[in-house]
Amino acid sequence: MAKQTIYIFGTSGFAREVADIARENGHEIAFLTQSPDQAEDLSEFGEVIPEGEVENLSDGLFAIGIGDNAVRRKIVQHYGDRLRFPALVHPSASFGIGQRERIEAMPGVIVCAGVRFTNRIEVGAFSIFNLNATIGHDVIVDEFCNIAPGANLSGYVHLRSGVWIGTGAAVNQGQPGAYLEIGANTMIGSGSVVVKSCEADSVYVGIPAKARG
Ligand SMILES: CC(C)(COP(=O)(O)OP(=O)(O)OC[C@H]1O[C@@H](n2cnc3c(N)ncnc32)[C@H](O)[C@@H]1OP(=O)(O)O)[C@@H](O)C(=O)NCCC(=O)NCCS
């Protein structure tokens, strides 16, 4: 990807982390916010631009520095195909055979420092792989998921759209032809251990992880 400015939606801590990844790849960055007056002081990181300017920047490249899966989805629904969202991959991430190319082809994917992918992994658009997560073989991560720092997905696991895996959680392996599946929009609490498939639209916590109330 040619070096140019990446316009990052969001001004939170995660937006700054996305800025770091863009810079590690040689890009300039600027942040986009709906309320520039309330944006934290980001002068040491880059310029803050009102989101209303997006239509004038539409030749540029964009990233979404917002961890909330539903908010990322709304931004993409709003701007549709008008904006280009390249995958952003930290140089310290590691990949099994053929995997880097497959992940870099997916729009809006963000891979933070230290993430390790093995092989035969499918990744959906706009999913986030945060610091030091590990993604085992034969895993499917649908679009708009978020894998928090240090989470570990074993082999033969399928995350449906919008799943959140909390910091340091572990997802045990499924089997060929019988993947361990986490239903759409379900959240797995930090430090939890998932030992079997989980329903959609739920919160699971604990060891072993159980649906909360
Ligand atoms: C699971 C989670 C979403 C629940 O948040 P919440 O709805 O605000 O829940 P609360 O803090 O009110 O806790 C509700 C109950 O669940 C328990 N609980 C919450 N998180 C838990 C966890 N990770 N593991 C075990 N139990 C947990 C609480 O102890 C509490 O139990 P109680 O009712 O017996 O007192 C949240 O705790 C969590 O783990 N979020 C992920 C954080 C993360 O990974 N961030 C990444 C940043 S990059």
Structure overview:
There is one protein chain. By secondary structure, this protein is α/β, with parallel strands linked by helices. The mean pLDDT is 96. The chain has 2 domains: 5-82, NAD(P)-binding Rossmann-like Domain (Rossmann fold, 3-Layer(aba) Sandwich); 88-205, Hexapeptide repeat proteins (UDP N-Acetylglucosamine Acyltransferase, domain 1, 3 Solenoid), CATH 2.160.10. Helix content is 14%, strand content 27%. The strands form 4 sheets. The chain has an 8-stranded mixed β-sheet with strand order 5-6-9-12-15-18-20-21, with helices on one face. The structure holds coenzyme A (COA). Coenzyme A (COA) is lined by residues 67, 130, 148-149, 166-167, 187, 189-192, 203, 205-206, 212.
Short description:
With 213 residues, the protein is an alpha/beta fold.
Secondary-structure element series: EHEEEHEHEEEEEEEEEEEEEEEE
Biggest pleated sheet: 8 strands, mixed
Beta-strand fraction estimate: 25-35%
Helix content: 10-25%
Strand order of the largest sheet: 5-6-9-12-15-18-20-21
Indicate the structural class: alpha/beta
User: What's the number of structural domains?
Assistant: 2
What is the second-level CATH architecture of the largest domain? 3 Solenoid
| Ligand species | coenzyme A
Number of strands: 21
> What's the CATH H-level superfamily name of the largest domain?
Hexapeptide repeat proteins
Shape label: globular
Indicate the CATH class of the largest domain.
Answer: Mainly Beta
Q: What fold name goes in the CATH topology slot of the largest domain?
A: UDP N-Acetylglucosamine Acyltransferase, domain 1
Low-confidence stretches: none
The helix tally amounts to 3
N-to-C terminal Cα separation, in Å?
Answer: 47 Å
Mean pLDDT: 96
> Radius of gyration from the CA trace?
17 Å
